[in-house]
TrEMBL record:
<protein>
    <recommendedName>
        <fullName>MORN repeat variant</fullName>
    </recommendedName>
</protein>
Length: 216
């Protein structure tokens, strides 16, 4: 994840991206509530407002988020997991002059890397016949509607231990009156990189993934 952002200074000129309040400069741009959505040549999507931009790459598991001061100098850089909430990678904060003032390492204390977890996800996607992209640099589907086939990766602490979770979703349309989704949830111990729980089940389409911590 280090290659996505770094501690270098940046300055952003928003005037190059907008002709006016309501008109973007490039033909592949659109304005929604004063936010510019620009589709780049590689199909990445750039979301721009008057104080931040968010790059939503077509490939990979993370979006890149940057905030800027009114003078255009960088204020903050960080990344966000496309498939779930949580803190990942490093966050860089700068003062108004562009001097780096703080680095927060969200990976501190975690032993298993996100990339290692994607390799486990790839293994189980094949085993259970989930036809979704799981590679670290793959095109990840972040549209988590019940009818879509998708994979989600997240992590959390429970009773003093750290865990990674992988969730797979697949819709089944055989009976339109009883729509169900096929689910697979894998629990990984962060310290040992071992799978400590696996739950393959069917559930109603609008429910969250079942986490092992909540089992009765």
């Amino acid at each position: 994840m280090e290659y996505l952002i770094n501690a270098s200074f940046e300055k952003f000129d928003f005037s190059k991206l907008k002709k006016s309040e309501n008109q973007p400069t490039r033909p592949h741009s659109k304005v929604v509530y004063e936010t510019v959505y620009d589709t780049l040549q590689n199909d990445d999507i750039l979301e721009i407002t008057d104080f931040y931009y968010r790059l939503n790459p077509k490939k990979g598991w993370f979006n890149i988020y940057k905030e800027f001061y009114p003078n255009g100098n960088i204020r903050l850089k960080r990344i966000f997991n496309k498939t779930s909430n949580g803190d990942y990678g490093k966050m860089y904060e700068f003062d108004k002059q562009g001097k780096l003032i703080k680095i927060t390492d969200f990976e501190e204390g975690w032993l298993t890397s996100f990339e290692e977890v994607t390799r486990i996800a790839t293994k189980y996607a094949k085993k259970y016949n989930y036809k979704v992209e799981t590679a670290f640099d793959g095109e990840i589907n972040d549209d988590q509607l019940w009818k879509n086939e998708y994979v989600k990766i997240w992590r959390k602490e429970h009773e003093g231990k750290k865990y990674w979770l992988i969730g797979f979703n697949k819709a089944h349309f055989e009976n339109s009156d009883d729509r169900k989704t096929e689910r697979l949830v894998i629990l990984i111990d962060d310290s040992t990189r071992q799978i400590v729980d696996k739950n393959h089940y069917f559930d109603w389409y609008n429910r969250y993934f079942k986490e092992p911590f909540t089992k009765k």
